[in-house]
Amino acid sequence: MFTDKFLEVIGKEGVVSIVSCADGEAHVVNTWNTYLVNPNDGRLLIPAWAMRKTEKKTLKNNTVLLTVGSKEVIGRNGPGCGFLLEGTARFIASGPEWDMMKAGFSFLTRVLEVTVTSSKQTL
Asked: What's the rounded Cα separation, in Å, for the pair 120 and 108?
């Protein structure tokens, strides 16, 4: 699912925007590229500290959009590469994946799991 270019982008620093929508209102929260963990199965695991509004919205509509980019990666037109991802989200509060993520990100309270259904390079 994830191209080599996408994996290169998430290995460099940049901002990730996560968009959730429910009750006629979109909500955006941000994190960092290097916080994305790829378990190599079409999912991304993201440490969540706050993200309470995101969690509430995904309980009503679990479809999310993510934008990921880095100016450190050469894209289609020169420096800067970005992606638009669509997927479904759920929050994990316990279990082996939570334990693994907690070991790497001591600040997390939950893990945002995004099962990616589409990925498109935009830059």
From this structure: 28
Residue 46's φ and ψ, nearest 5 degrees, are -130, 125
- Condensed to tens digits (0 to 9), the pLDDT of residues 37-96 reads 999 999 999 999 999 999 999 999 999 999 999 999 999 999 999 999 999 999 999 999
Among candidates 51, 52, 12, which has minimal Cα distance to 32? 12
Contact 70, 81 (CB under 8 A): yes
Please state, rounded to an integer, the average pLDDT across all residues of the chain.
97
> Got the DSSP string for 61-98?
--EEEEEEEEEEEEETTEEEEEEEEEEEEEEE-SSHHH
* Contact status, residue 64 vs residue 118, Cβ threshold 8 Å: no
The residue behind tokens 């990925």 is: 119
Rounded CA gap, 90 and 92, in Å?
A: 7
Distance CA 111, CA 96 (A): 11
DSSP state at residue 1: -
